[in-house]
Design goal:
The chain is mainly alpha-helical and 120 residues long. It is 20% helix and 3% strand.
């Protein structure tokens, strides 16, 4: 009988959640849920503000304008994804565009004139 700890048991502590013998997650931690909901390019985890605010109403959201045409006309006049200036300040590079409806992070700063989600 081998007395050394099993390889999967050593990995379980590194991933932060309880693991079964087959390395499947038994439950999801709050950090993992926040990580899964956060698109790349956000300054912090999505939803960490705790209010019903979105990236669109934040001063750090840099809008790329609205769609003017679409192949199937489903996105016409809707707000394009934009980048986060706080992410750019922290990382010293421009991040990928994030959807405007993403839950706001802890770096949220209220924008007095947020861009409209749709144009007429």
């Amino acid at each position: 009988m081998d007395c050394a700890p099993r390889r999967d048991a050593r990995r379980a502590g590194r991933w932060g959640g309880a693991m079964t013998v087959n390395l499947t997650q038994m439950y999801e931690t709050k950090t993992e849920e926040a990580f899964r909901q956060s698109p790349p390019g956000m300054a912090h985890f999505a939803g960490t503000l705790g209010e019903d605010k979105t990236c669109r109403s934040c001063q750090n959201f840099q809008s790329n304008g609205h769609y003017s045409r679409s192949a199937n006309r489903t996105k016409v006049h809707t707000l394009k994804p934009g980048s986060c200036s706080e992410f750019e300040r922290l990382m010293k590079k421009r991040g990928p565009a994030i959807p405007h409806g993403t839950a706001a992070c802890s770096h949220f700063a209220e924008n007095p004139k947020p861009p409209k989600a749709m144009t007429p």
